Amino acid sequence: MNGIEQSLIGGVEGGTAILLPSLGELIGELSGVINLGTEGCMLAGALGAYAVAVTTGSALLGILGGIAAGAFFGLIHSYLSVYRKADQLASGLVVWFLALGLTSVFGTGYVNDSITPLTIISIPGLSKIPWIGPILFKHDILVYLSYALVVALVVILKKTRLGLLLRATGERPEVVGVAGNRPALVQLIAVTLGAGLAGIGGAQLSVGYVGNWFNDMTSGYGFIAVAVVLFASWKPARVMVGAYLFGVVLAASSVLQAHGIAVNQYLLDSLPYLATLIALIAVSKKGGSNAPEALTRALTDTT
Amino acid sequence: MVDSAEIDLTRLEQDAKLDSTKNLLEVFKICKTFGTLRANHDVSFTLKAGEVHALLGENGAGKSTLMKILYGIQKADSGSITFMGKVVNIDSPAIARNLGLGMVFQDLRLIPALTVWENVALHTKLGGKILRKNNICELIDQASQRYGLAVDPNAKVGDLSIGEWQRVELIKVLLAGAKVLILDEPTSVLAPQEVDALFDIIRRLKNDGVGIVIITHKLREVRAIADRVSVLRGGKQILCDLPAQDITNDDLVKAMVGEFVNPITNSDRGSGSSSQSTLVALDLTLRAHGEGTGLKGVDFDVKSGEILGIAGIAGNGQRELADLLTGARMADRGDIELKGQRLTVAGPKHYRMAGMLGVVADPIREFVVPGLTVAEHAALWLATSSKKLRFDIGSATKWLHQVADRIGLPLAPSSKRLDQLSGGNIQRVILTLAFADPSQGLVVSYPTRGLDVRTAEMTHGLLIDARKQGTAVVLISEDIDELLSLSDRIAVISHGRISGLLEAKNTDRLEIGRLMTQEAS
Ligand SMILES: Nc1ncnc2c1ncn2[C@@H]1O[C@H](COP(=O)(O)OP(=O)(O)OP(=O)(O)O)[C@@H](O)[C@H]1O
Ligand SMILES: [Mg+2]
Q1: Which pLDDT score, from 0 to 100, does residue B390 have?
Q2: Label partner for B341 (CA 20 to 30 A): which of A88, B84, B261, B362?
Q3: Which of B56, B156, B161 is nearest to B108 (CA)?
């Protein structure tokens, strides 16, 4: 196995921990609410999953714990920003700090625990395909879940009334209200659901890819997820590409280190953000962005 | 007449009991206050099946508020609504829709980022949970054929003109199937022939037994379509359920504004202007793209102290002409000169600095910055013609107040967000800014759009004043009567060309109409 292949495998594995929160953030943003607390929801998910896995001995049950923990913080954020009309950016940051603090307090007890991580499932047949097989079809269950989610999201957004309602809410919530729907409820559900996905993303780290818990273990993945949504101009398939791209950059840096190639660690660490910057410039240069019109705007009373 | 029509509430109460079976809708003594402002004060009216009921009143009289209460967007402080004999509590648009109420809002409610069919699907629940696109598109096509509302279901709504938005709104509401249809100033954005088409639709719906409430500022439209009228003034009821034929136009105006309004006309049309051309357009040519015909070599000149009217059917090059004259777009060929200075050498700021001002055709898209207040718009307006870097909202507010006092159009508070004002109130802000200081040239598109009778006449007065002060005015309008009474000369535009240049006092509707529809030669 050469370094490139290693980086690609790691890219999918670690990229999934970016892809899941990105999809969650995409759902929330399409409804008009940005969640800068995604990082916090991931942290909560990582610890929640790990704690449940330690207690029950099952990493699979841990995933449920991750969903619940992430969704809980998402609920806080959506309640504050949708129903209390708090500033979305401020409320998101509050949720991040809150989750960071709480997971440090409650996580200390789990730092030295160990678990049996999620098992690697090789898809019969497909995993035998040279190159592609190990990269795409030899992973834990969460990776396959993320594949399914991308497909499901594409279909839901394009083909269903639910997807139309979601997109419409992010564009002009007052029109959605006039049509007899409840935009606030749509936003609450979308953000909470999205935060649940961020929670699974955290679980992918703690009970999957890394198989361990330590403080602040998501180290910025949640913020990268917010950037990926922008990078992908709010399109699920492009979110997938973006997440893997960041995943590969992150994996490549550890592969380089493992091979003893001296690249400045700080430079490597800054690569994802450099990529984000370039993506931003590219997106803005194209002119008209695809952003939902009502993104970050509080609902008015008449909706 | 007006006084005797003051409503007798006990009688109304009895009437309501008597024919509650015949009435589709009974609105009784609705009150609504915003803070200290009484937007509706004991307002009542009834609507029968197959009836067109016109709701009239000045800007800010409370018409839209009453309709929003009916549709469940706003909640009345007191009063009752009876629908088909049952007292109903309309707390949300969902309830209104289930009852069979449909509403076309004054500020159209569509989502620009979505296609026509997606907007229709969102509003109508057509096509099921899994959206069957072909199904919806077919229904849209059927409706657009049945009612003569041409739209492309696959077009993105953001790419459509306001007239087309209006059509999509109508299709959307018609497909949702309404027993009561509320139309809040549906004609203010339509060209005259589009208004005729709309009235045909209304007549057809009437025959189907739909009850229709229409809000308009134009008496001609009341005469053409309304069976009964109700009038509000300052939130209070002036007339209730009066058969339209029982009241004269003069009395209607008096009911609306409380006094008789003299139509303002340009009394010395065709004389008094200097002989020197101030504004000269030479061979203006613009390729057609999107809607509109583009321009094909348009020449004209406007003298100082002259109003040149531009008549034509919408989409024949008026938009392009206004854009070129204010620098919003650059011509492919041709020149514009103001007082001998070439304008076509730089962007809009250069036009403004040279003394060229404009009143835009489509305020929502071309003027209103969502989220900014009236005062901030005034500051923006001042910044465009200033070299200073400072963006001073405080002094802009002061300036706006002074100007508003002088101009005389009542404005909404300058701390209000412009995008949340009614169309009429937005238009007043735009007019106040454009007429603030005397200018060399003024290009005015549809100046009285959304304005009530009195404000419309005041605006006509402002145009005459500008003319007296020596401004070269280009007046673009689809209202031929307005053009005839104000212009010195009228240029008729058709297919992007000037098809005739007429002395306003020597011509009439017929001749203008003929030139407007003249085929391209
Ligand atoms: N949501 C609101 N909050 C505060 N004031 C409001 C609100 N909506 C309307 N108003 C005020 O209530 C009054 C009536 O407004 P409304 O929109 O009903 O007038 P209108 O008769 O429809 O006028 P127009 O002809 O200009 O459309 C106005 O003074 C307006 O500024
Ligand atoms: Mg109104």
Answers
A1: 75
A2: B362
A3: B161
Task: Compare all CA atoms of chain A with the CA of B104 and give the residue at the minimum distance.
Answer: A178
User: What is the residue with the minimal CA distance to atom 4 of ligand 1?
Assistant: B34
Q: Find out whether B411 and B374 touch, Cβ atoms under 8 Å.
A: yes
Amino acid type, B68: K
Residue B379 or B289, more confident: B379
User: With contact defined as beta carbons under 8 Å apart, do B324 and B292 qualify?
Assistant: no
Considering every ligand atom, which ligand is closest to the CA of B103? 2
Residues from chain A that touch B113, judged by Cβ atoms under 8 A, are: 167, 171, 292-293
- Residue whose tokens read 């690697």: A120
**Ligand 1: which residues within 6 Å by Cβ?**
B 34, 37, 39, 57, 59-65, 106, 412, 422, 424-425, 452
Whose tokens are 């609507």? That residue is B47
Look up residue B451 and give its amino acid. L
Q: Are A206 and A212 in contact (CB under 8 A)?
A: yes
Nearest CA to ligand 1 atom 19: B60
Residue B77 near residue B31 (C-beta atoms within 8 A):
yes
So where are chain B's domains?
4-257, 277-365+438-516
* Separation CA B29–CA A265 (nearest Å): 74
What pLDDT is stored for residue B15 in this prediction? 46
Contact call for residues A14 and A214 (beta carbons, < 8 A): no
Nearest to A180 among B97, B114, B129 (CB): B97
CATH of domain B277-365+438-516: 3.40.50.300
* A109-154 pLDDT per residue, tens: 898 888 888 888 998 988 888 888 888 998 999 999 999 999 999 9
pLDDT of B110 higher than 90:
yes
ipTM of this predicted structure: 0.89
Task: Please state which of the ranges A109-113, A150-154, B12-16, B142-146 shows the lowest mean pLDDT.
Answer: B12-16
Q: What is the pTM of this model?
A: 0.82
pLDDT, residue A284, reads: 60
- The answer, for B110 touching chain A at a CB cutoff of 8 Å, is yes
- Which residue of B34, B36, B448 sits with most ligand 1 atoms within 8 Å of its CB, as the best mutation to test the pocket? B34
Interface test with B, best of A164, A166, A185 (most B CBs within 10 A): A164
User: Higher pLDDT residue, A279 or A66?
Assistant: A66
Is the pLDDT at B441 greater than 90, yes or no?
A: yes
Contact A174 B109 (CB under 8 A): yes
Helix (H) or strand (E) holding B430: helix B423-434
Rounded to 10 degrees, what is the CA torsion of B178, B183, B184, B190?
140
> What's the whole-number mean pLDDT along residues A61-76?
97
How many Å lie between the alpha carbon of B129 and the closest alpha carbon of chain A?
5
- Percentage of chain B exceeding pLDDT 90: 61
Q: Give the 3-state secondary structure of residue B370.
A: coil
Using most ligand atoms within 8 A of CB, pick from B43, B422, B429 the residue to mutate for ligand 1.
Answer: B422
d(CA A169, nearest CA chain B) in Å: 10
Residues with Cβ < 8 Å from B102, sequence gap 6 or more?
Answer: B173, B174, B176, B177, B178, B180, B181, B182
Rounded CA separation A176/A169 (Å): 6
Q: Give the Cβ contact number of residue B360 at 10 Å.
A: 21
Interhelix angle for A59-78 vs A88-107, to 10°?
140
Question: Do B277-365+438-516 and B4-257 have the same topology in CATH?
Answer: yes
Considering the four listed CATH numbers 1.10.3470, 2.60.40, 1.10.10, 3.30.70, the one that applies to the domain covering A3-120+129-293 is 1.10.3470
CATH architecture of B4-257: 3-Layer(aba) Sandwich (3.40)
SS3 category, B101: strand
